[in-house]
Amino acid sequence: MKERVILAIESSCDETAVAITKGGNLLSNAVSSQIAMHQKYGGVMPELASRLHTENIAFTLDTALKDANVRLDEVDAFAVTRGPGLIGALHVGLQAAKTLALIYNKPLIPVHHLAAHIYAAEYVTPLKFPLLAIVVSGGNTELVIMEDHLSFKTIGETKDDAIGECYDKVARVLNLGYPGGIPIDRLAKTGEATYKLPSPALKEGYDFSFSGLKTHVINLVNNTKQRGEELNVPNLCASFQKVAIDAIVSKGLKAAQEYNVKQVVIAGGVSANSYLRSEVLDKFPKINIEPAIPPLWCCTDQAAMIAKLANYLFDEGIFANYDLGVDPNWEIEDFRNY
Asked: Cα(161)–Cα(212) distance, rounded to whole angstroms?
């Protein structure tokens, strides 16, 4: 039996990525990052991101094909991120995928970006159900229960800022550069959690609110400077990271027990955070829940995760027409509605 070849495209934010799988095995995973360009502005500039995707898509596609030693006419389906993400950036990837699918008369598979982040864990270990997915990134903070493959139920989410966005804004006020997660994580290891900061965990349910934590830190930094006092940056980073991550882990532990899950998956850019990874590896096995920790290359945006999920969508016959449009606010439960 011929092994299915899927070519996947990801362009939801500031990485242009193309990956190819054959029989579910990853053959290539080409990524063109824009971080160096956006660092000049302290964050992602949507219009610049769209333009850079347009410039990089052909080169990234060519690189993936050469690395995989695959021709376009050998591809069985083209998969693409439909959302969520930046609308202009999403359009670039979608138009590329639609064009290829049309030229080669092959199926077009619409993929949900956050669902794909969860499925990235399958490059390490099979998903085991029921499971809890902790999805944490620059644009999202969600707790998702999966009873089976392609079954998503969001039980908690942020009501304002995402945890990754909060990291970036705290890093900006501390002059640590963009993206903020890496320098804060690094400095936190050298400091102690001596600053008292408000928890982003809302008292009821599984929701979060990171805007209060972000504002508190910004005001603390500005007030300290105005008083002419010295700010202990490593200690503040340690304090911020502890209260932000502890809120995620605490609600995750509670949800995992309530829903009697077998596995916890961390997904998204913030899943690269060393404190989050260590806390999940430490806390969840103590309540007999297996942690699924993706390798660092699977945490940031790439197309390998799009291809991984696309294989399951192909089996379900989830294909889109050529009039498919992007949806920057696509809800994970609505991944079949496009």
From this structure: 9
Same domain, 54 and 85: yes
Report pLDDT digits (tens) over 64-91. 999 999 999 999 999 999 999 999 999 9
Q: Is residue 232 packed enough to be buried (19+ CB in 10 Å), middle (13-18) or exposed (0-12)?
A: middle
Indicate if 262 and 324 belong to the same structural domain.
no
- pLDDT interval class at 42 (50, 70, 90): confident
Residues 255, 168 share a domain: yes
Residues 112 and 194 in one domain: no
pLDDT in tens, 244-272: 999 999 999 999 999 999 999 999 999 99
Which DSSP category does 133 fall into?
Answer: E
Domain containing 35 equals 5-118+299-334
Q: What is the mean pLDDT of residues 218-238?
A: 95
Residue 295: φ, ψ to 5°: -65, 160
CA angle 129, 132, 133 (to 5 degrees): 115
Rounded-to-integer distance, Cα 107 and Cα 97, Å? 10
Distance, CA of 16 to chain centre: 14
77: enclosing H helix or E strand: strand 77-83
Count of domains forming the chain:
2
Task: Name the band, by pLDDT with cuts 50, 70 and 90, for residue 307.
Answer: very high
Q: Report the Cα–Cα distance between both ends of the chain, in Å, rounded.
A: 31
Contacts of 286 (CB under 8 A, 6+ apart): none
pLDDT in tens, 139-179: 899 999 999 999 999 999 999 999 999 999 999 999 999 88
Q: What is the CATH number of the domain that holds 104?
A: 3.30.420.40
Q: What is the dihedral of CA 143, 145, 146, 151, to 10 degrees?
A: -90
